[in-house]
């Protein structure tokens, strides 16, 4: 896992120059909490012990007449709960909404020192990140927040996908990016009504056999393959992290697991959990399989300096598979810590 380059120009004269080196953290699930609901907020101390990241959601799914309560609920929750090693994020409202300015002013003033990451929805291009970067710099300086707050973009418009590489490198504050399949589907004019996952009609037919009248198997395709691949390349090239976003059908654990697994295999570091039963799915999927780790360790052990070619269990290994094995073993070690 790469870490972004160190950077940062302190805004205020005499202010300490913070390092933009986020700790290499496990972020297998970003667990969404609606902070205006008292019952949900009451569960946060327990949830925080089970997840890698808790996110207070202020944007979509929070009704317009509850936006202020959600913001206040988030500040209260951030102040009162001991998150320990668990990451604390918020998803603010989008930049052209009437709420976003107060989201940032009040949250950075209230709990800026505890906040790790701001998730910014509906990012269209690097200009959105530049704006947020400068605003965060002003608010950190004004409120004496010395640990830089990182930015996580949601990739959920056609324009954003077009500009994904420029978004990934728009600021040293960039932590990573999540695919937002629901908004992206709408932005692209896709003919679906789902939050992520596949579609029974998005299939390819197998070739017809000798019996032309026999039913032909139809194989469902991953609707998100192209975007996830594009996002992972943009993120890895920029030294930041890619994530799959939400899976809306809470009743279909198998489909959620399959979507998360595709993302994991493609290079994503985690996904959103919107329901408690998605926490364990994400934990299982985004932690490497023990058999895979054991095999990866064999490769590392067989090639101590990472060069050459060896056969293991009948399979050829070389410098490139050594690097793949290292990704898996590094992740397993992070989980074991
Ligand atoms: C998430 O915000 C999405 O639109 O899928
Ligand atoms: Mg969205």
Automatic annotation (TrEMBL):
Membrane-spanning residues: none
UniProt keyword annotation of Zinc present: no
Cofactor dependency: Mg(2+)
InterPro entries, per the entry: Aldolase/citrate-lyase_domain, Citrate_lyase_beta/mcl1/mcl2, Pyrv/PenolPyrv_kinase-like_dom, Pyrv_kinase-like_dom_sf
An MF annotation (GO) of this entry: (S)-citramalyl-CoA lyase activity
EC number(s) on file: 4.1.3.24, 4.1.3.25
HpcH/HpaI aldolase/citrate lyase domain mapped to chain residues: 29-276
Enzyme class: lyase
Keyword terms: Lyase, Magnesium, Metal-binding
PANTHER family found in the cross-reference section: CITRATE LYASE SUBUNIT BETA, LYASE BETA SUBUNIT, PUTATIVE (AFU_ORTHOLOGUE AFUA_4G13030)-RELATED
Recorded family membership: Belongs to the HpcH/HpaI aldolase family.
Protein name: Malyl-CoA/(S)-citramalyl-CoA lyase
């Amino acid at each position: 896992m790469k870490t972004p380059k160190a950077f940062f120009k302190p805004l205020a004269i005499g202010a300490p120059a913070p390092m933009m080196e986020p700790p290499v953290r496990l972020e297998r699930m970003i667990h969404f909490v609606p902070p205006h609901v008292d019952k949900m907020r009451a569960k946060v101390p327990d949830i925080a012990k089970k997840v890698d990241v808790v996110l207070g959601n202020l944007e979509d799914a929070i009704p317009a007449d509850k936006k202020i309560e959600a913001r206040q609920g988030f500040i209260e929750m951030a102040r009162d709960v001991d998150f320990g090693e668990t990451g604390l994020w918020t998803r603010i409202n989008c930049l052209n909404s009437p709420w976003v300015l107060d989201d940032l002013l009040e949250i950075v003033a209230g709990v800026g020192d505890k906040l790790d990451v701001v998730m910014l929805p509906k990012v269209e291009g690097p200009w959105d990140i530049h704006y947020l970067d400068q605003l965060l710099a002003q608010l950190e300086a004004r409120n004496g927040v010395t640990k830089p707050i990182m930015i996580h973009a949601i990739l959920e418009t056609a324009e954003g996908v077009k500009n994904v590489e420029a978004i990934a490198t728009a600021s040293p504050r960039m932590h990573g990016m999540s695919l937002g399949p629901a908004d992206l589907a709408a932005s692209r004019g896709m003919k679906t009504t789902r939050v992520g996952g596949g579609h029974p009609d998005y299939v390819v037919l197998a070739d017809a056999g000798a019996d032309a009248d026999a039913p032909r198997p139809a194989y469902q395709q991953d609707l998100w393959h192209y975007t996830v691949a594009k996002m992972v390349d943009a993120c890895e090239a920029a030294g930041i992290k890619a994530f799959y976003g939400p899976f809306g059908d809470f009743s279909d654990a198998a489909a959620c697991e399959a979507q998360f697994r595709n993302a994991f295999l493609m290079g994503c570091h985690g996904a959103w959990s919107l329901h408690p039963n998605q926490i364990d799915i994400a934990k299982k999927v985004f932690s490497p399989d023990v058999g895979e780790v054991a095999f990866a360790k064999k490769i590392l052990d067989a090639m101590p300096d990472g060069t050459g070619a060896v056969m293991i269990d009948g399979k050829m290994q070389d410098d490139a598979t050594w690097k793949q094995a290292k990704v898996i073993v590094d992740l397993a070690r992070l989980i074991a810590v």
